[in-house]
Write a structure and sequence with these properties.
Elements: E1 2-4, E2 17-21, H1 29-45, E3 48-54, H2 59-62, H3 75-84, E4 89-93, H4 97-101, H5 104-114, E5 117-123, H6 136-146, E6 149-153, E7 157-158, E8 161-162, H7 165-173, H8 177-184, E9 190-193, H9 200-203, E10 209-211, E11 222-230, E12 233-242, E13 255-260, E14 271-282, H10 289-310
Parallel strand pairs: 1-4, 2-3, 2-5, 3-4, 5-6
Antiparallel strand pairs: 7-8, 9-14, 10-13, 11-12, 11-14, 12-13
Helix pairs in contact: 5-6, 7-8
Length: 311
C-alpha cells in the first residue's frame, strides 16, 4: 500500500480511483463499511481502492480544545488495518488553513484535477468543506459535473444506536471492553515496545513487561486481567495502568506494567499487544512494599480466575 501526503502526489496515478473518505478514527465497523464500498467498487469496475483521510483532526484547526482523544493514536497501525481491508492507496492530508478554507466545490475540484475519480464512498452523515457546508447531496451534485459515482453508506447499529467513535471512547473510559470491541470489530488493545522499568516488580516476585500505552483514549487507571501476545505466543496476565503512586512520590509517567503468567523469556525491545479483559480494581497507594506485594498476589489470583471463566 502506498501513502501520499498531498494532492499533487497523485499526478502519477493513471488508474481510476475509488475513494473512501473520512477521519476513520479507530477504524470501527462503520468506517470498515465505507472502506468496503470503495474496495468492492474497485473490484467490480476496475481501479484502485483508496482512502482519503487527515493526519490531524479537522477540529485541531478550528476548535483545538474540542479535539477528541484518538482511539488509535499510532498511524502505522491504522494504515496496516486499512491494508487488511483491501486498501491499496492512502491520501493522508494535513488539515492546513488552506484546506480548511476550501469550499466543498474547491475540495472536490482539486481532487478531481489530481486523479481520475471513479467513486467517492462516505458515511450518510459525512460533511466536508469550509464550515462543513458540503454533504452527500453536495457530493451528488458535484458527481454529475465531474463524472464519478457517489456511494453513501448507512450507519452500523448496535443495541439500536449508531456505532461511532464517541460511543467507543465512552465504552473504553468505562472499561466496557466487550462493548468497545464489538463496535471496533476487533479487541480493544494496547500495542507497543517492551521497555525497561525500575525492576521493582522483579524484587516483589512479580516481574513485569512494561510499555507506554500511547496518547490515545485510555480506560481508568487500575489493575486489569489481560491477555498478551509477544514473540508469537499468547499469555494470560495481570496489568496495572497508571502512575505507580506507591513508589513514585508525585506519580510517574503513564505506564502499562504487565505480569505475564508463564515464561516469556527476555522480551525487552519486543513488540507486545495487551488486551484488557476485565477491570479488577482502581490504582491505589499502599503504605509499604510488603502490602503492595500482598495485593499483587491477590490481583494475580483474581486475574487468573477471570481468564479461566472467560475461556
Amino acid at each position: 500500500m502506498v501513502v501520499y501526503q498531498e494532492f499533487k502526489d497523485l499526478k502519477g496515478v493513471s488508474s481510476p480511483v475509488h475513494w473512501a473518505m473520512g477521519m476513520f478514527d479507530g477504524l470501527h465497523l462503520g468506517h470498515a463499511g465505507v472502506i468496503a464500498a470503495a474496495v468492492e467498487g474497485a473490484a467490480r469496475d476496475g481501479g484502485i481502492p483508496a482512502v482519503l483521510t487527515f493526519r490531524t483532526h479537522p477540529l485541531a484547526r478550528v476548535r483545538p480544545e474540542s479535539v477528541p482523544a484518538a482511539i488509535m493514536a499510532v498511524e502505522a497501525e491504522k494504515f496496516a488495518l486499512m491494508e487488511e481491508l483491501g486498501v491499496r492507496m492512502v491520501l493522508n492530508l494535513e488539515f492546513s488553513s488552506r484546506l480548511a478554507s476550501m469550499s466543498p466545490e474547491e475540495f472536490i475540484g482539486e481532487l478531481c484535477s489530481s486523479c481520475r475519480v471513479a467513486e467517492i464512498a462516505v458515511g450518510e452523515d459525512w460533511h466536508f468543506g469550509r464550515g462543513r457546508a458540503g454533504n452527500v447531496e453536495t457530493l451528488r451534485l458535484l458527481a454529475g459535473r465531474c463524472g464519478f459515482r457517489v456511494t453513501a453508506v448507512p450507519p452500523i447499529l448496535r443495541d439500536g444506536e449508531r456505532v461511532s467513535s464517541t460511543r467507543i471512547r465512552e465504552a473504553v473510559r468505562a472499561a466496557d471492553f466487550s462493548q468497545a470491541s464489538a463496535m471496533l470489530g476487533r479487541p480493544y488493545r494496547w500495542k507497543g515496545r517492551v521497555v525497561h522499568g525500575r525492576q521493582l516488580g522483579r524484587q516483589l516476585d512479580y516481574p513485569t513487561a512494561n510499555m507506554k500505552p500511547g496518547s490515545g483514549v485510555q480506560p481508568p487507571h487500575g489493575v486489569y486481567a489481560v491477555r498478551a501476545r509477544v514473540n508469537g505466543s499468547e499469555y494470560g496476565g495481570v496489568a496495572n495502568l497508571g502512575v505507580r503512586p506507591t513508589v513514585e512520590e508525585k506519580g510517574g509517567e503513564l505506564l502499562l506494567e504487565t505480569h505475564l503468567f508463564g515464561q516469556p523469556g527476555d522480551i525487552y525491545g519486543r513488540e507486545m499487544e495487551v488486551e484488557p479483559v476485565r477491570f479488577l480494581r482502581p490504582e491505589a497507594k499502599f503504605p509499604s512494599l510488603e502490602e503492595l506485594k500482598s495485593q499483587l498476589a491477590r490481583d494475580a489470583a483474581n486475574a487468573a480466575e477471570v481468564l479461566k471463566r472467560e475461556e
